[in-house]
Amino acid sequence: MTEIQEHLLKRPRAAGSKSDGSSSGAPEISSGDITKLAEQRTGIADDPGTPALSKAIAVTPHDLPPQSETREAPFILAAQARKKMPMWAMFLLGFVPLWAVSFGGTMQLPDVEDALFAEAAEIYSGSGGCAGCHGAGGAGTTVGYQLSDGSVVATFPNLVDQMVHVSRGSDAIKGQAYGALWGDARRVAGTRGQMPAASTLTQIELELVVFHERVVLSGEDVSSDEWSEYIADLRARVEAGEGQSPISEEFVELLLACADPEITPEATGEGVINSEGESLCPGPHLAEE
Ligand code: HEC
Question: What was the pLDDT predicted at 64?
Fold first, then answer.
């Protein structure tokens, strides 16, 4: 994935706010200058009888050579002077569309300003340290498997199985098969090396990083209603500051009750529900659950 750098995001915004104000970095012209210029070029000061508006309407300043006898009203001259585009604005005009095209081409982040996506990406590349072994875009390295382009979704059709794997790491199930079939075989933990248990992450960070790997890096289809509900719920919990406890053994137990025994060693698949019968398992739930 293309990493989105903060300064790239901020520039267009800064430009937008600047161009609203009149002190935009364009050369400052005092009203005295304008009057002088207007007098020199139009002789308007000597001709107070002509209404300024009729002069303004009569001329088309851009079509006429500067040496013409055109009488330009001071406000037109002022407008022309103001129109000069500063260098930074010209740079932005060329740069922003280019950035949008190159970024759009990667189709990695649906909404770059979305705080949820930004936070999830930050855990993957920053605090969670996953990018170091799996690559910034999840393409894999000589150390960790590829996660991008559907890979991690192929290994873990359901998000909760991936949460178990990341939270307890590969050593906990060393030598055991896990995941769905890749061709006619399943992955065996430890074949490639060691996937460290994500013990430094909080529960919500685990959920977010798994979300990033699946949705952003691996392109999981999130167009269903269940996914929309899950994303809204995740967003609400992040905003409310929930899930701040570190990943505990009890939490892994809960995930194991949610996970699929055919995918995840030691999973029970029993599910976990609250008193209202709602599933407490993280992830998109089918309507009837
Ligand atoms: C020190 C390097 C390293 C770091 C850091 C790391 N991983 Fe891994 N990861 C691995 C290795 C190596 C494997 C394969 C282990 C094996 O052979 O069982 C793996 C496997 C995985 C898998 C299973 C993929 C599959 O298709 O089987 C997932 C998912 C995963 N890592 C996610 C993460 C996440 C999320 C993070 C950050 C919280 C992370 N990894 C951090 C090295 C790392």
Answer: 46
Confidence check: pLDDT of 156 > 50: yes
Q: How far is the CA of 207 from the centre of ligand 1 (A)?
A: 15
Q: Among 10, 214, 213, 16, which Cα is nearest to 99's? A: 10
Structurally, the chain folds into a number of domains equal to 3
- Report pLDDT digits (tens) over 210-251: 999 999 999 999 999 999 999 999 999 999 999 999 999 999
pLDDT at residue number 113 = 74
Regarding whether 119 and 245 lie in a shared domain, the answer is: yes
User: Which residue type does 240 have?
Assistant: A
Q: Which atom of ligand 1 is nearest to the CA of 179?
A: 27
pTM for the whole structure? 0.67
* Whether residue 128 sits in one domain with residue 45: no
Separation of alpha carbons 263 and 97, rounded Å: 44
Does 250 share its domain with 152? yes
The number of the ligand 1 atom at minimal distance from the alpha carbon of 162 is: 29
User: What domain range includes position 36?
Assistant: 31-83
pLDDT of residue 29: 57
